[in-house]
Specification:
mainly alpha, elongated, about 90 residues, single chain
Length: about 90
Amino acid sequence: MDDESTARESAIRRLKAKKGLQANLVSYVVINAFLVAIWAVSGRGYFWPIWVILGWGIGLAMHAWSVYGARPITEDDIQREMGRGDGIA
């Protein structure tokens, strides 16, 4: 493969990851708002939606990190790691 097609495939993967995160975020907001509405209508007792909000929120934060925060492995990273020669097979 040439560099242009590799760059294009990489860009497509990043765009799909961003679209996936956006869909996850919209689902998070809509479904959790629905759960809070159910809680409010059913008597406002113990705020049980917090468990879904927190659990899904952690997953959403990890998803966002993988899309926007995680740095891809570069050839320099590979070469640096190979130069360490720590003997791990």
